[in-house]
From TrEMBL:
It comes from the Bacteria. The lineage of its organism: Bacteria, Bacillati, Actinomycetota, Actinomycetes, Mycobacteriales. This is Cytochrome P450. The keyword Oxidoreductase applies. SUPFAM superfamilies: Cytochrome P450. Its cofactor is heme; FMN; FAD. Pfam families: p450 (PF00067).
Length: 458
């Protein structure tokens, strides 16, 4: 029985549709909540536009095939086009610029390239550890994690440094971090506010244009300062400046390089920072898990994580399970959009060609049929018991699916495991017992207002 009428939330308004069904500041979390009362598949309508929301592993499995489905560009990804329309994340798969940039950049994420980024990641994290070691006040976890991952992306990817993180001024208020957060805040604004852009929203729009222009200038500076690679080990920017597309034999246009620099600066730091922040929050309440992580670090490094070598990071298997479990519970990307290439059937309903289907990862990753009745609990043991992330294809997809899944997956996992290893070995985490987790959505998910006191272990 295939029907086109999908269930939807209660209280649909004429013309406006389901705007009242979602908390406009927390759309991903409200969509997951709605599925508890409506079921794993339902529709939301905004004016004439229909969006299908899926929250279950089996449904997520159905939309995986790249021959029948493709990436769709819902808000806020669509709004990120303001940063440059040929950026890898926002460009259409048919856009020749996407294909060219993808082919040029892919070798920048092989094992060999990752080996080059490792010492840079170690340097940046060591600087942070030194600064934290001198600090007795509670730290702003999200702010500092943003600083670390942005600095790693800039140094490893573009041979550029915003700050030495050992300096007192390199804290949470680094202007470039705030500039990016402002742009992300603007890209995440609710549709109802977007409608006011032409009137009372004019000042905010103007400020955003200035922010975007400043970020574009920054990317241009990075390109100007890029020096040729003489060691035969190019970073991402040198690769883009010096390599031609292996298919067309053409170099990338400067504007395309600039769009990728901005894409990587934003996509390559915000998600990793969010994951690290969630992990530190969860671990601050689980000294038993931290203890096991430290035992593993002792076994692998002989008690000195500062010597952690590239090959040893992959051997920190238990810590990796902690990261897997963090991304299951809090998939920082929130979800992603797909659309069918032809009219099709999804969960017993008809979905028309080109219609948006949003895979809500909070719903998928907490599907009790797959993850059990304790799916809402943080328990790295579930990945220890069954390391396969494919209990059912589609059940665990924090990095997206298919051709357009995350190009930076290995980079992110290496940097997150390495950073946590250094932090957890150097400090005891003291949670603020009054803090209740509240999750902000600024394109990606992130704990709001998390502060934590650290005690040096040495
Ligand atoms: C795409 C998640 C870290 C660069 C994606 C997508 C997801 C994702 C879900 C697909 C988006 C969609 O379908 O619309 C994550 C998570 C990360 C992470 C959870 C960290 C925990 C990174 C890092 C980089 C990066 C560190 C860069 C070094 C990109 C790029 C794309 C992408 C360029 C677009 C790929 C394309 O379509 O060609 N990411 N990401 N990401 N990610 Fe990541």
């Amino acid at each position: 029985r295939v029907v086109s009428e999908l269930p939807g939330p209660w209280g649909r308004l004429p013309m406006l549709g389901d705007v009242l069904a979602l908390n406009p500041r927390k759309p991903v979390q409200s969509m997951a909540k709605l599925s508890e009362s409506i079921g794993p598949i339902y529709e939301l309508r905004f004016g004439p536009k229909r969006m299908v929301i899926i929250n279950g592993a089996e449904l997520a499995d159905t939309v995986q095939s790249d021959s029948q489905w493709e990436k769709a560009f819902g808000p806020p990804i669509r709004r990120l086009r303001m940063l440059g329309s040929s950026g890898l994340i926002v460009a259409s798969t048919n856009d020749p610029q996407w294909g060219a940039a993808h082919r040029v950049l892919m070798p920048g994420f092989t094992r060999e390239s990752m080996r080059l980024y490792h010492p840079v990641m170690t340097d940046v994290v060591s600087e942070l550890i030194r600064r934290w070691g001198r600090c007795s006040d509670p730290i702003d976890v999200a702010g500092d994690m943003n600083t670390v991952t942005l600095e790693i992306m800039a140094r490893a990817g573009f041979g550029y440094s915003f700050a030495n993180l050992d300096e007192p001024s390199a804290g949470t208020n680094m202007p470039v971090v705030n500039l990016m957060l402002d742009v992300l805040r603007y890209a995440s604004r609710p549709v109802s506010i977007e409608l006011l852009d032409a009137t009372i929203g004019r000042a905010a729009r103007r400020r955003n244009q200035l922010n975007v222009a400043e970020l574009q200038r920054l990317a241009e500076d990075m390109i100007d300062e890029c020096r040729p690679d003489v060691a035969g080990a190019p970073d991402l920017l040198q690769r883009m400046m010096e390599t031609s597309d292996p298919e067309t034999r053409q170099p990338l246009a400067r504007s395309v390089v600039r769009d990728q620099v901005l894409t990587f600066l934003i996509a390559g730091h915000e998600t990793s920072a969010g994951t690290l922040t969630f992990a530190l929050h969860l671990l601050s309440h689980r000294p038993d898990v931290v203890k096991r992580v430290r035992q593993e670090i002792d076994t692998i490094t002989g008690g000195d994580p500062t010597t952690l070598a590239y090959e040893q990071v992959a051997k920190l298997r238990y810590l990796r399970r902690v990261v897997d479990e963090t991304l299951r519970l809090w998939p920082v990307a929130g979800g992603f959009f797909r659309r069918p290439k032809q009219d099709t059937e999804l969960g017993g309903y008809t979905v028309r060609r080109g219609e948006w289907v949003y895979v809500n990862l909070i719903g998928v990753h907490r599907d009790k049929h797959i993850w059990g009745s304790d799916a809402d609990q943080f328990d790295p043991e579930r990945f220890v018991r069954d390391p396969s992330q494919e209990r059912q294809p589609g059940a665990y997809k924090p990095f997206g699916i298919g051709l357009r899944s995350c190009i930076g997956r290995q980079f992110a996992l290496h940097e997150i495991v390495l950073t946590l290893a250094h932090i957890l070995y150097a400090f005891d985490l003291e949670p603020d017992l009054k803090y209740r987790l509240a999750v902000d959505e600024l394109v990606t998910l992130k704990p709001a207002g998390l502060r934590m006191r650290l005690r040096s272990r040495s």
